């Protein structure tokens, strides 16, 4: 006797599993196949403490005829009706099958597995060495890709964060700045600029009175600090091209002087693409010069759903958003449902908005009704 996922319940079972906060760990540990009708998926459900009763049928027989030994003492049964025949077969099978035994439970092993595979909160504490001694800085919860990014910067390279809208790139950049410079009596500037159409926005200019108008990049480059170039791939290529010399050569030809790169200068760029031009979703992106892209080390920044959970006190709403996001991805619909939908929706629900109005405002955002219906049906919401 065994359990099997009912064919009409497979999609619903799959969605329930993928929406669970332990899904990522279960998938990696158990190496789950695509088909949910497998023992690995049932093991994963048990690991995540999901009740499989609504999705299963039980008591099926294997199609392999060698699975069970011949039934001893079987006699021909008179054909007096299907019910009598079924009852007779059931009685013989019950006698032949071994009695079920409850598996032994190793409590210490279960506790060990829980500790090993439970989601780890990305809570970081940085230790800075200062003149006064060690200074500990509790960064709090950071993005799952924080360590990769800090490694790139500590290696002395320029960091290019590539990820979808709402994946937390700007917040991550500020946390990296704090981690790098939190030991200073006076923390250097976190300089910021957006997409560029002309290079003077980056390098500044001399006005009609002969005064140099400096930029955030100039201050970070010459005084030290983090220069955060947001929407980097939305800049015109010609406006960014002179940036190469500044990054590689240690000097930059500003309009009023030859500036020397400060030892504490750090460059971080945030992109929605890898700089190869627009795609069907990010249509306002430009293909950047290959020599420009060569100056950066790209790190892919995805949605961190554990971090997303930590940013809201409405767990039920967050799980709803994540189910919808998973369905959008599986159905390959071009639509963004980022953690911003969780954060903004949480605020609106506190203002006594209905679930329907909140979804319209922060999730659907003008999608066609038929597309919304398809996503809702797939997500089971």
In short:
The protein is an alpha/beta fold and 381 residues long.
Please write out the topology.
Layout: E1 3-5, H1 10-19, H2 23-30, H3 39-47, E2 56-58, H4 82-96, H5 107-117, E3 123-130, E4 133-141, H6 146-154, E5 158-162, H7 169-181, E6 189-193, H8 200-203, E7 205-206, E8 212-213, H9 216-223, E9 225-229, H10 237-240, H11 243-249, E10 251-253, E11 258-260, E12 265-271, H12 290-293, E13 296-300, H13 305-310, H14 315-330, H15 339-350, H16 355-364, H17 369-379
Parallel strand pairs: 5-12, 5-13, 6-9, 9-12
Antiparallel strand pairs: 1-2, 3-4, 7-8, 10-11
Helix pairs in contact: 1-14, 2-3, 6-7, 14-15, 14-17, 15-16
Could you give a short account of the major beta sheet? Answer: 5 strands, parallel
The unreliable regions are 59-82, 127-132
With strands numbered from the N-terminus, the spatial order across the biggest sheet is 6-9-12-5-13
Overall outline = elongated
Order of secondary-structure elements: EHHHEHHEEHEHEHEEHEHHEEEHEHHHHH
Mean pLDDT: 80
């Amino acid at each position: 006797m065994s359990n099997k996922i009912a064919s009409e319940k497979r999609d619903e079972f799959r969605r329930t599993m993928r929406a669970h906060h332990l899904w990522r760990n279960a998938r990696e540990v158990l190496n789950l196949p695509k088909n949910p009708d497998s023992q690995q998926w049932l093991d994963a459900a048990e690991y995540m403490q999901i009740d499989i009763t609504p999705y299963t049928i039980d008591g099926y027989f294997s199609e392999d005829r060698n699975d069970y030994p011949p039934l001893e003492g079987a006699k021909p049964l008179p054909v007096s009706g299907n019910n009598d025949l079924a009852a007779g077969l059931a009685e013989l099978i019950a006698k032949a099958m071994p009695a079920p035994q409850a598996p032994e439970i190793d409590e210490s092993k279960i506790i060990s597995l829980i500790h090993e595979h439970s989601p780890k909160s990305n809570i970081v504490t940085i230790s800075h060495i200062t003149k006064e001694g060690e200074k500990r800085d509790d960064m709090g919860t950071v993005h799952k890709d924080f360590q990769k990014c800090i490694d790139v910067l500590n290696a002395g390279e320029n960091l290019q964060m590539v990820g979808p809208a709402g994946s937390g790139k700007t917040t991550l950049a500020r946390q990296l700045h704090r981690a790098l410079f939190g030991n200073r009596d006076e923390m250097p500037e976190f300089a910021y600029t957006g997409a560029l159409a002309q290079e003077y926005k980056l390098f500044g200019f001399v006005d009609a009175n002969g005064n140099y108008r400096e930029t955030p990049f100039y201050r970070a480059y010459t005084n030290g600090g983090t220069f955060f170039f947001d929407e980097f791939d939305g800049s015109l290529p010609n406006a960014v091209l002179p940036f190469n010399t500044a990054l590689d050569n240690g000097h930059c030809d500003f309009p009023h002087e030859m500036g020397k790169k400060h030892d504490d200068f750090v460059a971080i760029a945030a992109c929605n693409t890898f700089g190869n031009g627009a795609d069907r979703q990010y249509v306002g992106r430009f293909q950047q010069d290959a020599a420009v892209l060569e100056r950066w080390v790209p790190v892919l920044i995805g949605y961190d759903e554990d971090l997303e959970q930590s940013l809201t006190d409405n767990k039920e709403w967050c799980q709803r958003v994540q189910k919808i996001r998973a369905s959008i991805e599986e159905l390959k619909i071009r639509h963004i449902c980022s953690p911003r939908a969780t954060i903004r929706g949480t605020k609106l629900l506190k203002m006594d908005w209905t679930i329907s109005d909140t979804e319209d405002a922060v999730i659907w955002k003008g999608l066609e009704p038929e597309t919304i219906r398809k996503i809702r049906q797939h997500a089971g919401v």
